[in-house]
Amino acid sequence: MFLVLQASIGYVQKFWGPQIDPRLAQYLTNFLFGSGQQKTPTVDFNRFAELYVYNVRGTVEERMMVTYNCLGMDYNEDVELPFQLLKEYCESIVSTYIKIVKSSSSKRARTWIEKGFKANASHVQALGEAVAASVGGDLDSPQHCTAQQLSKWLQSNILLKQVAELVYVNLYGINKRAGDESPTPLPPAASSLLPGPEGLDPMPDYPAFIDMSHIVWINAHLPQKYQHKWRFLFSTHIHGESFSTMTGRIIDQGPSIIIIEDSSGYIFGGFAAVSWAFGPNFTGTDEAFLFTCAPKMRIYPATNYNDHYQYINHHTKTLPNGLLMGGQFQFGGIWVNAEPFGEGSSAESCSTFRGYRRLSREPSFRIRSLEVWGVGDKPVCDKDEETEIVSERSSVLATRKSERNFLKLIGKTQASDGFAEIETPS
């Protein structure tokens, strides 16, 4: 017995219309019904199912076929895709994902939105462009991409895969219960690309200067173990323009991201893979990276050429006082002065990070906004560890005491009775 269902173009567009970018609706119509002379008035169940299966569980070849068909082309290894077409395709997928996030009943999404984090159309478009840009290797102006480049891109672009999967799971109502008309709940944070915000509750009017698209872009490139949570640590708009205040709030807080907006509106920053700590030496690991969010979204990962990932110092006479990520003193990828706070610089070149280009509009910049977020769970500090050890030892000693009392009751003695008990730290 075969299940045979058919749907018209009008029905499909009506079914998906409210929750989908109009461009993506057209691309999916191309896949389902064909385009040009091959266009048909209806689609059968198998073709409708293939759209979901190929995008969510499909092989690279199947995903390539979907991409070509959605763009009104037959898959052919000799046919190049114009980058502009691919960019608009990625923008439509990202735009639909953001629509899903904004309509979600998820507490995680609602908190970001209620605290003033918007999804500006220009930033959503920039996220789509960034997803597409890596296909040709030239991050600024690729013209066309070959089938070989597209195949490599589909294999390596994790962000595209995750966004597309979330979009199709939502469009096909996979997470919905029967009769449930509410928006599809977002999956757990790690797979939704949107972290859970922590520390914003006391601030009803948070002065947000980054966009939901920026959060998705940065979070997608963090190590997966940190993607589930962002912990608010510092903002110049809330805590004031003070290097001492900033360092007091970010030292020993685990891995973190620093995000800066300069006076020209450029937004950029870096991921510090270990806790910030005062000292004369560079620290960090090759998980560190620099990024830009506006006007374009780009990621600059570590080259392993040197280990100048992060440095911070204050009130020293012989070493620079400030915060540095990448490069050399006075020529860093990001340099933030301690005194006067509010000034910084971004060098023309930085050997610490691959593909690096100056992050700010001008080599020297004024800080309009700066914030720092801890990522992942808050690390356990030494005092917490000591308290935990004392608690564990106390628990063990209490257990041993009750065991000795029980042994005495039944007329037994312990061979270790003569030994001193472990002293707990004072």
From TrEMBL:
GO biological process: response to oxidative stress
Coiled-coil blocks: none
Chief location bin: cytoplasm
Location in the cell: Cytoplasm; Lysosome; Membrane
Residues in TLDc domain copies: 208-376
SMART domains cross-referenced by the UniProt entry: TLDc
One protein family per Pfam: TLD
InterPro entries assigned: TLDc_dom
A Gene Ontology term for the protein's cellular component: membrane
UniProt KW keywords: Cytoplasm, Lysosome, Membrane
Domain of life: Eukaryota
PANTHER family from the UniProt entry: MTOR-ASSOCIATED PROTEIN MEAK7 (PTHR23354:SF131), NUCLEOLAR PROTEIN 7/ESTROGEN RECEPTOR COACTIVATOR-RELATED (PTHR23354)
Record's protein name: MTOR-associated protein MEAK7
Organism: Euphydryas editha (Edith's checkerspot)
